[in-house]
């Protein structure tokens, strides 16, 4: 006789891949931010300055990054791009787009 708990455990385990990983599980917000921060420079060749937002979506995660697009002298004139990076629930980058630009010295209001 199986209990409801045992049945739930078995169904949760069935979503994992053969190597014991978590292929069927949604990644955390922190893991999504880390994945976006690591992968964005690889695909864009633009260094990330900071993560400014992480939002859960119906399909996974949307991470907003600020990245150094153009270095200038003085540094206050550096051009920073704001990018939204979309990730699947499992943490795969599915797309990205620039949504804004500003000089480092500009104060942005929320």
Tell me what the CATH architecture is.
Answer: Roll
- Order of strands in the sheet with most strands: 1-2-3-4
Gyration radius, to the nearest Å?
Answer: 19 Å
CATH class: Alpha Beta
Shape: elongated
Tally of domains: 1
Please outline the major beta sheet: 4 strands, antiparallel
Low-confidence stretches: 1-22
Q: Kindly report how far apart the N and C termini lie.
A: 56 Å
Give a summary of the structure in a few sentences.
By secondary structure, the chain is of the alpha+beta class. It has helices spanning about 5-15, 30-45; strands spanning about 50-55, 60-70, 80-90, 95-105.
Description:
It is a single chain. With 110 residues, the protein is an alpha+beta fold. It has a single domain (26-103), classed as Nuclear Transport Factor 2, Chain: A (Roll), CATH 3.10.450. It has 2 helices and 4 strands; from the N terminus they run H-H-E-E-E-E. It has helices at 4-14, 29-44, and strands spanning 48-56, 60-70, 79-88, 93-103. It has a 4-stranded antiparallel β-sheet with strand order 1-2-3-4, with helices on one face. Strand 1 and strand 2 (60-70) form a beta hairpin. The longest helix has 16 residues, at 29-44. The N and C termini lie far apart (56 Å). The relative contact order is 0.16. Residues 1-22 have low confidence and may be disordered.
